[in-house]
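Hi D.,

Good news: the full-assembly prediction came through. Inputs first.
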Amino acid sequence: MIHHYPKLFESDPVQLARAERLRDKSYEFTQFLVNVLGVTDVGASFPHKVTYHPSCHGTRLLGVKNEPMALMSNVRGLEFVPLPFAEDCCGFGGTFAVKMADISGAMVSEKVDHVKETEAEVLVGLDMACLMNIAGNLRYRGEQVRVMHLAEVLAEGAGLA
Amino acid sequence: MSAQKGRATVKERAELALNDEFLVKAVKFTTERLRNGKKNASAEHGNWDEWRERGRQIRLHTIAHLDYYLNLFVENARANGVHVHFADKGEDAVAIAMDIAQRKAAKTVVKSKSMVSEELHLNHALEQIGVEAIETDLGEYIIQLAGEMPSHIVIPAIHKNRYQIADLLSEVAGEKLEADTTVLAGFVRKKLREKFLEADIGMTGCNFAIAETGSMVLFENEGNARMVTTVPKTQITLMGMERIIPSFEDLEVMATLLPRSATGQKLTMYMSAITGPKRTADADGPEEMHIIIVDNGRSLQLGDPEFQELLNCIRCGACLNACPVYRHIGGHAYGSTYSGPIGAVLTPALNKNVAEWDDIANASSLCGACYEACPVKIPLHEMLIYLRRRKVETGNGKAVETAGMKGFAALTGSSAAMKAALAIGKIGQRLVVRGGEIRTKLGPLKGWNSYRVTPSLPRRSFRDRWEKLNREVDADRPQMAPDMKRRMEQIVKERGKGGGGHGGH
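Then the structure:
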């Protein structure tokens, strides 16, 4: 979102400059850890079977692809299982989930089917909206899969939470 | 199409599709095959993003100088002996085609696949003057028999499985045909041979029109377009005015992008370039050739900074195959000739009537898979937002939504208002929260909670904890290490240049 602000202020040079400054110093969590801090191993240990949903806006708009993988690959005991059709949208899409509830519902149901296929204990992601959506469907169906932000995995694995 | 009649909105039509198990299964099966094919073919070819960028540049350049290249194309086509016609509106194009058919006293027209023809509903018009129009592309033939619209740009009958197709063809055959693809294709092949031989006119679409030579180029897999363009004495080609590319050199790039993006093929089985009618030394080909150049709303995009790139589309269907919404609802739910992400933008843009931009632009989660799949990098996910915005800006938005957005802006625009709202929410939610979850399907929660549960507001939110957290962080904030600082400055510098891996076009 912040990375789209400059577009909104194209005709206002003062605000545009501010929007660009904000954009330039804003980072997605894993991009900040890996690309700025240069950290790929936080010393965490998380002995669980984990799958990962790469969010559309994270991967396609922000270009977050390798960073979360680098971080997860260095977590002790973490068993990574790839999610089938991982790149498919989970169906959240903001107001889409309400306006086109049935289409969105079909999308999130399919996403959860794929999560179940992996038999993972934990679904990890980087976008709270996707996670709320997927967790909502998992709970609705009475599934016990934990849904966590990667930051939570790292914090729990490092004994911080 | 018949089942879709009377269903006015995307939502209503989508509901029909979502409950059609056969349709969803058939669409998923084929789109998966196509998108995997594309992924493999583009990876195998290598440097795919550079090819895409090259394709985009060719399309941008051509459309920016469309008047020049169109003129050049028409001059060259005429010099080759082609009759070139311009049609401003769809009905003009239909009238021109009917006029030719009547002049030739045509009884039958064989057609190869053309989306423009579908856009014009030409078959219907020809039938009205007693001309039989026969689709010869297998998929088009099937949907013609079913009386439907194509539900995919490249695979018109994608929504049907082989059992449904066997039923349709059995009716034509007058006997029960086995639901075996070889048997079915064999039957159609035999049936169509007769039609090719007796047809008075062959009608085609046009994948690309080459300005420098006045040639038209067709990509196909079944050989039917070859038959259509060689057997009948008269050929009519329908061509969207934006199909132009400057030269055969540019065709090389397009021929690299189109089949790979459409079906994952390196090249289609047949690629024909036709430069004028039959010459004396030619063994076959039409004696008379017409090209009808169709505008029908296309020129309205010229000069529109938000939608001009729509004219860059090469109709490969990759955005449909990548789209998670299309995957679940198929093409007919979009309610128009063009479906999927490109259809959701193209249909309203061609009509240019903002008030009638129904909810078609809302049928997207804006995930960007369409843009990622597009071989000429059309930012469809952004165009969908432009459509939504224009509808609201012209006063055609929904009052409830506008009020909701204003309310949301008021809350999120003020820290105090947000804090107050959360406090009220925390009290209010006690009525509906059970075990940290909200499951009621009342009011605005109905859509969401029909498929999910809603998390409750936490007892202590991040905002509540922030003051303390901030103090803790401030207390032992270390100096940033020099190498970190360097990396950060480097990233900021790159972002300033427009890099940084976001947006990306």
